[in-house]
Amino acid sequence: MAEFKRIFDPIKIAGLEMKNRILMPAMHLNMARDGFMTGGLIDFYEERAKADPGPGLMILGGCYTERRGMGTPAMVGIDDDKFIPGLKEFTDRIHRHGQPVAAQLYHAGRYAFSFLMGEQPVAPSAVPSRFNPEVPKALTEEEIIGIERTYGDAARRAREAGFDAVELIVCGGYIVNQFLSPLTNQREDRYNGDIFTRMTFMREVLASIREAVGPDFPLICRLSGSDFVEGSHTLEETKVVAAEMERCGVDMISVTGGWHETRVPQITMNVPRGAYVYLAEGIRGSVKSIPVACCNRINNPELAERILEDDRADIVGMARAFLADPEVLHKAREGRALDVRTCVACNQGCFDHVMLLQPISCTVNPRANRERETELVPATEKKRVLVVGGGPGGMEAAWVAAARGHTVTLCEASDELGGQGLLAAVPPGREEWSEMVRYLSRQVVNEGVDVMLGTTFTPDLLDEFEPDILVIATGARQIVPAIAGIDGPTVINAWDVLTGVSETGDTVAVVGGGAVGIETATFLAEQGKEVTVIEMMDKCGADMGLSSRWVILKDAAAAGVKTVQSCRVVKITREGAYVEAGSELRLFPADSVVIAVGSKAENGLWKSLSEKGLLESLEFYKVGDCVEPRKVYDAIHEGFEVGLRI
């Protein structure tokens, strides 16, 4: 069991004392309404503030400093005094728990969208981005001075609203980055030139903030350690920027990765834990005395402790770790680090929701963004609950019901819990799914669920268990398509490949380019196999989340996986797969043909019980893929809802 000493050391940021070395950076939650704080948004932060302990400092944001710089109307507004009362209510609720909180000052620049804010985005120069192809309006010098003033006004509002510090966002590719980078700053005035001249806007914004809040109010900068965009700043240029920030009176620098339009993954599951700590190390070496925080893919207290022990940073930023488990530090201090609900960086509930302009959620924590209405209160009537199926949805339903006081039995046909979660963790770069399985399995044990492995449930067993409530979570099974030769000796199901039940030859054709097909192909390619994915649709990965799809496809290509779209497999022989594309028939030679065309609900148990009339007098629920094959997000959330309501 790890000992945690360094993460609980206090540290001062100007006059602000952090009681521990863990920072909860700003997360765009899409939970405000027309810029105003909502009860749900306050509840979200208060849930994390009331943990004992919460983070040493949490940061609310982004808070847009003027409407033209708004990301979405669901972001927090701080561009008008009308927002102060709601922000004051927020800080009062947070301070009630002894928790300090800062406001992040945000302006999207060319990353803003006209269809959301009602006017053309603005930027140093009329240069569009990969993130937003709209051509922004190039700011006049008078307009720039006006924007600089809005930062000071916003900082003044933050202090009046009771915030303990403000943070200027100089990362992600937002407006300050746009002035700093030679890619986006093509001006011919005092705001452009060498790197020192391109820092003019940043310097003047910092001066505006400092004038508004006074000399002793903590001022933080959130900095891209490297832009990860060709032709823009690398770590070497960013070191110069960091040194200038310190000279301008910045009290702390929080270092993250690159811009949103970078093609270097930063927050997806395939990024190794702590991969970008080196950026903070570099920045730390360029400043004289102010603390530096490291961030990105730091999802457990053990890693945070190691980083501090190795003296790689002064503070460790953990954002989605608190999204997944508000009590992450409390559990660490109590010696229960194994009970932490770990963020697996799947992006299904967080970044995918943000990109769809939806409020944030969390795959592994169904209470995120619903803290008040989802408290696990004791059940008024204790019942016998039988859960059939030990995948993610079944385990979630089982432990939540048990935590509320029900007597729960969980039957699983195989010899271990996890279901498709075990398969999901096999492909390279997807190993974090095992953390989800580990947590759910541990919760099932912690809450006293009676687990029966190797038990295939049949209708006859109902008399033995006599449940008051039956939860069916039997999952899904792979679809076997109607293709000539599908029963041939060279044909293998993808799930059998991932579980090691079957091995392939050296040349493989994978039929189906969804998530399972692509990830299985990558798994085989990294073993040295020659792999081609054949997909009927016009693109692969159509069932993947927006924020992860490009990364998973990029990894597949890097492993050597070839893809063919808009074609249909019509016959499989010992030679390989015959593919029809238009009127052309083509053979893809293969020693093995792997089938990954999707799955269908496993409804055998439900149908059998229904046909025998055994469900007519029994309260029952279906959760997860046995309802309809979808994402693990849906399975866990449905399991939680059942466990919460019964």
Describe the structure concisely for a colleague.
This protein has 646 residues and is an alpha/beta fold. The chain has three domains: 6-372, Alpha-Beta Barrel (TIM Barrel); 379-478 and 601-645, NAD(P)-binding Rossmann-like Domain (Rossmann fold, 3-Layer(aba) Sandwich); 491-597, FAD/NAD(P)-binding domain, CATH 3.50.50. The chain is built from 22 helices and 28 strands.
Features:
FAD/NAD(P)-binding domain, TIM Barrel, 8-stranded parallel beta barrel, alpha/beta, 5-stranded parallel sheet, single chain, Rossmann fold, 646 residues, 18% strand
Structural class: alpha/beta
Q: State the helix count.
A: 22
Shape: globular
Quick check: average pLDDT? 96
What does the largest sheet look like? 8 strands, parallel, barrel
Strand tally is: 28
CATH secondary-structure class of the largest domain: Alpha Beta
The tally of structural domains comes to: 3
Bin the helical content.
Answer: 25-40%
The first-to-last residue Cα distance is: 36 Å
Query: Under the CATH scheme, which architecture of the largest domain would be assigned?
Result: Alpha-Beta Barrel
Could you tell me the radius of gyration in angstroms? Answer: 27 Å
- CATH homolog superfamily of the largest domain: Aldolase class I
Segments where pLDDT lies below 50 for 5+ residues?
none
CATH topology title of the largest domain: TIM Barrel
Give the strand content.
15-25%
Output the strand order for the largest sheet: 3-4-6-9-10-11-12-13
